[in-house]
Amino acid sequence: MRGNRITNNQGAGISASNAGAFGDHRIIGNRLSRNGTDLFWNGIVVACWRQNIFRTSLPAVLPQGTAF
Length: 68
Prior knowledge:
The protein is mainly beta. The chain contains no helices and seven strands.
C-alpha cells in the first residue's frame, strides 16, 4: 500500500493483520488522519512501515523493516 490518503474511518485507517494474506505487507508513504487508529499491526504478519504521516498507531512503535 503506497501513496494513499486515508481519512475519517471509524476503525483502522490501514490494518496489517491478516495472517492468511499472501506475501509481505509494505505500507509506505501514506497520509492518514482522523481515523479511529491510523495504523494498526497485530504483530503476526511481516510488515514494513515507512514514511507514513499519521497521528495514532497500535502498537505505538511500528517496525521500519526494509522496503523488501
